[in-house]
Amino acid sequence: MTPAKDFCYIDIGSIDNKNQKLSIEENIVTADKAPSRARKIVTIGDILYSTVRPYLHNMCIIDRSFSHTPIASTGFAVLTCHSGFLNEFLFYYLMSPNFDTYANNTDNAKGVAYPAINDNKLYQALIPVPPKAEQERIVKKLKDVLPYVVTYGVKYSEAKSLNNGFTNKLKKSILQEAVQGKLVSQEPTDEPASVLLEHIHAEKERLIQEGKIKRDKHESVIFRRDNSHYRKLYLKKIYFSIKSTNFWYLYFKFLNQIYLIRF
């Protein structure tokens, strides 16, 4: 039925599919601008179930009144429970793995990018209906445990994210500690890295003066970071020997930059 006056339109965007709640904001539409899909009048207590990509659980219970007649999109199936059948029980069952298997089965949900189950297929689903007292007991128990399930889901996602990034973060952390000379205890009598860098720079200058290498366009740069001095060296193949009796330096080259790690 086409709306004859202003109404509150409920479409997929009106649903919070993470919490299965209806938005508190009303989308008031005038009759002359009514979308072609605005066809289903709903009332308090009805269940809206999105038939497009049902695995997303775009669904809610109409739990409040509206300033204008609420009309839902044809993208929803509107379910009304009769006497003896709790809408909350049906609502929770529609989110269960058992019903998901039915609704998302390729025999029922047609389409590739946007699989959808039509109303007829949806209404043919078998729904177990226990006595009303048992429905109430099940709903109460679900309301008790679901907050814990949600909290666990958040913590699990956080832990999974940390585990996925742990290896890379560990490598970067070890490299940073190595660059700063923090992997092993330091000897006060050891020659500091800054002096070693000066030796390297002097050796480079000697080789340049002897004509064995050419001076690079990019000169070495000394900079300070996290209370340490660093020299960024732009070198090609330079062969030199540095005497150090108490520790080793690891040289590695990346994009023509040489870095030193002391062990």
General description of the model:
The protein is α+β, with helices and mostly antiparallel strands. It is built from five helices and 15 strands. The strands form five sheets. It has a four-stranded mixed beta sheet, with no helix packed on it. Strands 12-13-15-14 form a four-stranded antiparallel beta sheet, sandwiched between helices. Strands 7-6-9 form a three-stranded antiparallel beta sheet, with helices on one face. Strand 14 and strand 15 form a beta hairpin. The chain is elongated and about 95 Å long. The C terminus is likely disordered.
Briefly characterize the structure.
With 263 residues, the chain is an alpha+beta fold.
Write the layout of secondary structure elements.
Blueprint: E1 7-10, E2 15-16, E3 21-22, E4 28-29, E5 38-41, E6 47-50, E7 59-61, E8 70-73, E9 76-79, H1 87-94, H2 97-103, E10 109-110, E11 116-117, H3 119-123, H4 132-179, H5 193-209, E12 221-225, E13 228-234, E14 249-254, E15 257-262
Parallel strand pairs: 1-8
Antiparallel strand pairs: 1-4, 2-3, 5-8, 6-7, 6-9, 10-11, 12-13, 13-15, 14-15
